[in-house]
Structures are given as C-alpha cells and as structure tokens.
Amino acid sequence: MAQYAVLIYERETPGGAADLPPEVLRAHEELPGRIRELGGREVAGMALEPTSVSTSIRDDVVTDGPFLETKEALAGIFVIEARDLDHALTLARLTPIVDGGVEVRPLIGFDIAEPDPETAEAGPEAAESGPGIAGSS
Q: What's the pTM value of the predicted model, to 2 decimals?
C-alpha cells in the first residue's frame, strides 16, 4: 500500500500536550485501531514538544523558537499506509483535533535509516511497540 504522512497542526497552549482534553488523548490512543478497522495501518507516530523549546537554523543563524510564527504549530506526525489518496484522506479525518487541522502528503519512502541497537537485538516486535502520538503505536 502507498504511504502518507499525516501532519497534525494545533493551536499551541502553554502546557502543550498536557493541556489536551482527556477524551482527545484517548482518541489518539485509539486511532491505530480505528485506522486498522478501515483497512489502513499506522506505521509510525510521534508527538512533538511545543515550539517554545525548538531551535531553528536558517543559513548560518541559529535562533531559539520556531522557524515561522503561526497561529497553529506542527504538533505531531504519523505515517499511514492506505490504498490511495482518497483512502488516506478518510483515515486522516479520524485524527482528533482540538483547534487546528491535518495535512496529508504522499511519501516517497519511509525507512528507518539506522535501527536502534537496543530494539534491533530484541527483534522487530520491540521496534514496533514504541510510543507514538500520545503513547499510541
């Protein structure tokens, strides 16, 4: 199946993910199962720390904070497998959002560039069971 990145944009709050309502966190934890029920698969997922702790590099200048000032920030990313773009959009619509939206982009490829030596020795099951968005995998 084709792979797609789902980029999650949310309005930032002072506490970051800790400010998300419990039902939204629960919905993120349930998302891989809901995607699976519709014939897709979540390959990877990650939540990002707030932009207040980011560092940007532009040319030779390093600055604290985000690269761009926006109302919504990139809050997380997950990679899904779907039959086609329409299927990917259907799956991405399941993403719980408080005050933002998602962007879906086809991937050229998604590979683990360098396996984690701790999980590589334990086998592929260990690598697949790591935390994703809000603890999902």
A: 0.77
